[in-house]
Design brief:
The protein is an alpha/beta fold. It has a domain of about 220 residues: FAD/NAD(P)-binding domain, CATH 3.50.50.60. The protein contains 13 helices and 19 strands. It has a seven-stranded mixed beta sheet with strand order 6-5-14-15-16-13-17. It has a six-stranded mixed beta sheet with strand order 8-2-1-12-19-18. Strands 3-7-4 form a three-stranded antiparallel beta sheet. The longest helix has 29 residues. The model has no long low-confidence stretch (mean pLDDT about 90).
């Protein structure tokens, strides 16, 4: 199907990866991004071995590794600093070929964008209609502009308008749209270099989590997750976090003190709790959060989007028809994406969202007694993914 054309709706990590993958197999691709300026907003992101392998297949893995920092030391703690589980990044690297890597989200976006054909990206263009005009062509309307293509990739995020058009009855009147997880997250990158002591940590208190990722330039990304009603906001988010975490062990207060108040981002955590019946409809494929928005508890959201992108491109490179490729994509990606989403939800319920003292004590005891090899095996279920080849 060399020489075919596609429109990718959404210029996030998954959408940009899809453009790169489709371009590598010889397709003409346009990505439509509704933002009028690309501000490269966001804090930090962790990339596991499965995401890194996908990036390797897209030809940008080395550049991403060079802009990242490996997570070799750290683990999970209590608010007083006691260890619940230690992370052995070297053992994980031996098992799957790569440690988890930390990178600023803005840097990852720029690297993906740099790998695009110059003419591929259209910003400030919102896809406001989707129409199958005949069996071989699908049409995307962007205001006064019409784009016809052999394929549309809906990578327009958790609130995906494309998903709503394709599956108007999903998830049904009992669960309208993405569901609030019960948690809200505040995050930022420190203003200047700071030494958090380890590459990566999570700290679990009653209904709260604080975590950090050390970044290559000496700065650190931190996040705070709280059990709160949806829509709750603070007049001074940084001051509120200092109040809530003032008794937690160092370096948590130091990370907050190294942050500009205006740098703090605050988002409620939503997920696509009711699984989609398919990741495809007609000549449209859903990808990333549009297909399987999940909670961040396993750090797999971006990795799963990258897996989607490579799997879709490989299917289109080898299948005899677009329809056959989309059937293969759905069969490969839907079981895995939905299984990872379920596991992430369960991890949140057993981690940060626990608030009852007895439940927390039982969880903490179980974690301390779990052998490190068993913990590594649990991680491997998600990290040990081998991408199809695009060459």
């Amino acid at each position: 199907m060399d020489g075919s054309s596609a429109v990718v709706v959404g210029g996030g990590i998954g959408g940009l990866a899809a453009v790169i993958g489709l371009h590598r197999i010889g397709w003409q691709v346009t990505v439509v991004e509704r933002a009028s300026t690309l501000e490269d907003a966001g804090a930090g992101i962790s990339l596991a071995a499965n995401g890194l392998r996908a990036l390797d297949e897209l030809g940008v893995g080395e550049a991403v590794r060079n802009a990242s920092r490996g997570q070799y030391s750290g683990g999970t703690r209590t608010p007083r600093g006691g260890w619940l589980a230690r992370m052995d990044g070297s053992a994980l690297e031996r098992a799957v070929g790569a440690p988890i890597m930390g990178i600023p989200r803005s840097a990852l976006h720029r690297l993906l964008r740099d790998a695009l054909p110059a003419e591929a990206l259209r910003i400030g263009a919102e896809a406001d209609s989707l129409q199958q005009i005949h069996p071989g062509t699908v049409r995307v309307g962007c205001g006064d502009t019409v784009l016809d293509a052999d394929l549309v990739v809906a990578a327009d995020g958790i609130g995906s308008p494309m998903r709503s058009r394709l599956f108007p009855a999903h998830p049904g009147p009992a669960h309208p749209g993405p569901a609030y997880s019960g948690s809200t997250v505040l995050r930022a990158i420190t203003e200047h270099p700071v030494d958090p002591g380890t590459d990566f940590e999570l700290t679990w208190g009653p209904g709260a989590e604080f975590g950090h990722i050390a970044l290559p330039d000496g700065q650190a990304e931190w996040h705070a997750v709280l059990n709160l009603p949806a829509g709750r906001r603070f007049a001074d988010p940084l001051a509120e976090l200092r109040r809530r975490f003032r008794t937690w062990y160092d370096p948590i207060p130091a990370l907050l003190d190294a942050t500009r108040p205006t740098a703090v981002l605050h988002h409620d955590v939503h997920e696509l709790r009711t699984p989609l019946p398919s990741y495809t409809a007609g000549r449209t494929a859903l990808l990333g959060d549009a297909a399987h928005a999940m909670t961040p508890n396993l750090g797999q959201g971006a990795c799963q989007a990258l897996e989607d992108a490579v799997t879709l491109a490989a299917a289109l490179a080898t299948a005899p028809t677009v329809q056959a490729a989309l059937a293969h994509y759905d069969a490969e990606r839907r079981p895995r994406g939905q299984a990872v989403a379920r596991a992430a939800r369960q991890a949140g319920r057993m981690g940060q969202q626990l608030s009852h003292p007895v439940a927390i004590a039982l969880r903490n005891t179980a974690m301390r007694l779990t052998p490190s090899r068993a913990a590594t095996r649990m991680i491997l279920r998600h990290h040990a993914w081998v991408p199809p080849r695009l060459d």
